[in-house]
Design goal:
By secondary structure, this protein is α+β, with helices and mostly antiparallel strands. Helix content is 17%, strand content 58%. Strand 4 and strand 5 form a beta hairpin.
């Protein structure tokens, strides 16, 4: 249902962007990126003149105790506001959760015939960060420095993303 709604909105906005003759101050963006703490994200956003609002996230589920998920949102300013290149500065916030099996813990529990250790490792993080980024012909890179940790955890220290973005 959500996928169908996103496709319909993309077609409507894409048609509107192509059908208008006068350049619109509204631009839209779609992309994919690699980085931390979420290994892979799909990105979507909207731009008005030099300001942008962006959301990204993805999840991977292999089985009950082996998955990760994460999402980020950002609000910022693009100094040059060109479709092909730009320098960005903004504020972002995000959440990530990961759980993976730990074979050593499981083996110790089985050897002792008891449950002393968790059978999996997990990590949860949330942050509010200052972001700085650059775009050149679709390739974008971004570094984010966490300023505040709402959950009280202190990792990761530096977030980064590298990917490809299409602005239309």
């Amino acid at each position: 249902m959500i996928k169908k709604l996103l496709v319909i909105l993309l077609v409507i906005f894409g048609t509107f962007a192509v059908a208008t003759e006068a350049p619109s101050p509204w631009l839209f963006e779609l992309g994919v990126s690699l980085g931390s703490p979420t290994p892979l994200t799909l990105l979507t956003g909207v731009r008005y003149r030099s300001f942008y609002l962006r959301g990204e996230g993805l999840a991977n589920y292999k089985k009950e105790d082996n998955f990760w998920c994460g999402g980020r949102g950002s609000l910022g300013y693009d100094w040059f506001a060109q479709e092909d290149w730009g320098l960005e500065l903004g504020v972002s916030g995000g959440y990530a959760y990961a759980r993976a099996p730990n074979g050593m813990h499981r083996a110790l529990n089985e050897a002792n015939d008891a449950y002393y250790l968790f059978n999996n490792d997990w990590e949860e993080t949330a942050d509010v960060s200052l972001e700085m980024g650059a775009r050149l012909f679709g390739v974008h890179s971004r570094i984010e420095v966490p300023l505040f940790y709402p959950l009280g955890n202190q990792k990761p220290n530096l977030l980064w993303r590298l990917g490809y973005i299409v602005i239309f």
